[in-house]
Amino acid sequence: MRLSARMRVAVVTLLALSSLSLAGCGAQIPADPSGTLAAVEGGTLRAGVTPNGRVMDVSDDEPSGSEADAIRAFADSLDADVEWTVGSEEALVRELENGGLDLIAGGLTDQTPWTDKAGVTRPYAEITAQDGRTLKLVMLVPLGENAFLSRLETFLSERAKAGAL
């Protein structure tokens, strides 16, 4: 089926108008349906942490260790303060699902069982387990908050390249 020149112009015009109207909708990809990134920027990063002797110590007033340092630096990059919540993985994931946390860290690995309850970053660092296995560390974020996840992953990747993890 051959289209006449007039039909081709009409089809091209229709496609151009469709593209413009979609662009005008203000849709951004990746997006945060619950607005996590926008809420954290210039505000407060609500970080849930669980103790892990290799990367997260929660025995003092403020968490310490390589992951706590990374979370503080990420918050600084967003001009945000950090509000810490210490708990078990299960309690923190429940709080994440209920909208009370923005991320979870504490020695979580890419083998985490929470993939159906939270967004998982790409592995950003490796540690050696006591049995000699190499473990790949990840952090958890609210499901579907892809702009926030993307910003966190980019930050962690840049930090790893700089040797800061």
From TrEMBL:
Pfam annotation, one family: SBP_bac_3
Keywords of the record, alphabetical order, are: Signal
User: Which PROSITE patterns does the record associate with it?
Assistant: PROKAR_LIPOPROTEIN (PS51257)
Signal peptide location: 1-23
> Which spans of this chain does the record mark as coiled coil?
none
Q: Output the SUPFAM superfamilies linked to this UniProt entry.
A: Periplasmic binding protein-like II
Is the keyword Signal assigned to this protein? Answer: yes
Q: Where is the Solute-binding protein family 3/N-terminal domain?
A: 58-160
The protein depicted here goes by the name ABC transporter substrate-binding protein
